[in-house]
Give the backbone structure.
Amino acid sequence: QVQLVESGGGLVQPGGSLRLSCAASGIDLKYYAIAWFRQAPGKGPEGVSSISSSDGSTAYADSVKGRFTISRDKATNTVYLEMHSLKPEDTAVYYCTYRQYWGQGTQVTVAS
C-alpha cells in the first residue's frame, strides 16, 4: 500500500525558508516520479514542482522557479522541497503526490 507523509510546514515570515519532507512507503522513489502540489484557501490545487524517476530531472511552476528546489534521497526514500524567499502568496497546504496517491498535506503559512 502506497503511503506518503509530508512534514516540515509551519509559520514563517516573508523572506524566510522552510524544508518540506515527503516520506514514502509502499513504493521505491528511485523508480517513480513525485510531484508537489499546493492548495491555497478558496483555490484549486496548483502544481509546484516535480522530479522524474528516470534521470532525476526537475520542473517548477513559474511562480516558484529560482526559489524552490526539489530533491530526492534514495537512501531514506524521501523527497524534499526546499523553499526560500517565501512570500505570503506561498501560503497553502502542500501535498506530495504519486499518480492518484496524495499525502495528508502540511500547512505552510507565510505571514509577519
Notes: The mean pLDDT is 95. Residues 69 and 82 are 5 Å apart (CA to CA). The first strand starts at residue 3 and ends at 7.
